Amino acid sequence: MTRHGDSVDPSDLKSLPDSAPDVVGRYFELAARRDVEAIVALFTDDASLTDEGETRRGSDAIRAWQTGPAARYEYTTTIKDSEALGGDRYRVAVRLEGNFPGGSAELKWDFTVAGGRISRLVIEP
User: Which domains are assigned to the chain?
Assistant: First the structure.
């Protein structure tokens, strides 16, 4: 379990498939530390990120998401499961618990990786 603002618990990352590229694990490590610039650097320049039904495109929009909606609440992140979907896609099931409405959420992070960087990320229930 990771608390945003603290370091990631390495045991959480063990649930990632062996085939998952390092960039997927790095995303969760950096998100736990809220290292915005390092997170943005994980994405391709033309990447898309969809969260709460809104799609953002490009580095500036992803940075704005990291400093806005993604930083609005404090929460812990627990990686529950993950799977390689083939074709450079990886899905990570996550449980968030924190001070947001409802207090907990089960979400899936669907990563598409190209050239060692994230080209697409969709976060949804």
Answer: 2-124 (3.10.450.50)
* pLDDT value, residue 19: 74
Under 8 Å CB-to-CB from 76, ≥6 apart: which residues? 1, 2, 3, 4, 96, 97, 98
Q: In what order do the strands lie in the sheet with 54-57?
A: 2-3, 75-86, 89-98, 104-114, 117-124, 43-51, 54-57
Per-residue pLDDT at 11 exceeds 80: no
Share in percent of the chain as helix, strand, coil (round to 5) = 25, 45, 25
Distance CA 122, CA 99 (A): 22
> Quick one: which of 31, 108, 105 has its CA closest to 70?
31
Quick one: which H or E segment has residue 85?
A: strand 75-86
8 Å CB contact between 60 and 36: no
Burial class (CB in 10 A: 0-12, 13-18, 19+), 10: exposed
Verdict on whether the full-model pTM lies above 0.85: yes
